[in-house]
Amino acid sequence: MTSTAVKLDIRLLSKAEITEWFLEMGEKKFRAKQVYEWLWEKSVTSFQEMTNLSKALREKLEAHFVINVITENKVQRSNDGTIKSRFQLHDGHFIESVLIPVPSDKRFTVCVSSQVGCSLSCKFCATGKMKRVRNLDAGEIYDQVVKVNQQALDTFGHPLTNIVYMGMGEPLLAYKNVLKSIDHITSTEGLNMSPKRITVSTAGIAKMIKKLADDEVRFNLALSLHAADDLKRNEIMPINEQNNLGILMDALKYFHQNTKNRISFEYIAFQNFNDSLEDAANLADLCRDFPVRINIIEYNPIDGAIFQKAAAHRIDEFAKYLIDRDIMVTVRRSRGKDIDAACGQLANKD
Q1: Enclosing H/E stretch for 285
Q2: What is d(CA 348, CA 58) in angstroms, rounded to the nearest whole number?
Q3: What are phi and psi of 158, to 5 degrees?
Q4: 48 lies in which domain range?
Q5: Which ranges of the chain have pLDDT less than 50?
Q6: 343 is catalytic
Q7: Is 59 a catalytic residue?
Q8: Is 3 domain-assigned?
Q9: Quick one: how many helices (H) and strands (E) in the chain?
Q10: Is the pTM of this model over 0.85?
Q11: Are residues 141 and 219 in the same domain?
Q12: Of the listed 27, 96, 170, 266, which one is catalytic?
């Protein structure tokens, strides 16, 4: 009878577990370190690339394990230089990543996904209209960084400078795998990128924000805020009903006190909904307990949503109100709208 056992992805194992396997196979302990380096420092996609291992050992690894690397399925290039990539996972599902280049600032950012779909149903977000299928594992998140970094090198001759977990899914609902991916990205045994170059964005899950603080993470945190009073936020973000602004601000204050890491508020400006000076005053009130950078984002309309982007002069007045109160503000004009790569538009559309 033919065996139908599924091989385990070796990247799901820790270094200690790989070492244990090698010892059980009667192999030298240092071989595990070599394999680990090939996987996370050199980013190989097959055992045959591990050239300092014997052919017999590579075949033994191949008999027991797989490397479920993501594969490029579709690439779209925007008129403004933004590149959106759709990747296929080993089980046939798709995710999207976006390369956002700002060559004038030597800033090259990748926006990575952490879930297939999303369960939060934010009213303005295309991904929120998809059902959540599953969390990505650490290797699938790591692969997005590796592949988009190569894309940046090939296209612009410059490596990635920043990573934002703002793609498909809610990172704090894939907590363990997100943190494990960041470990591989920042480790000297991995890609060796600075955690200060990484920002994790959340729609607002207070208990998990506190867990980040307790785990003493070193990366930056962004809250997808989008409304500065509970009534409006409940209307567009159902998660606010269990994680209201008071609870969230307490969690963020705890996060800042424990980590001193940077906190940002992401604030999409919707026409005649959250773009008044009264809204700006409410937002300023949320910035009293810890230093915050506010990113005001131009809205990108999606199919089936009732919102429109705020007028440019309203955004400018809104920003000026905050700046006049010594709050750090950046107004982000949308990038990649023509290829559905802008904030809130990722939905695996053909």
Answers
A1: helix 277-285
A2: 36
A3: -145, 135
A4: 8-66
A5: 1-4, 344
A6: yes
A7: no
A8: no
A9: 10, 14
A10: yes
A11: yes
A12: 96
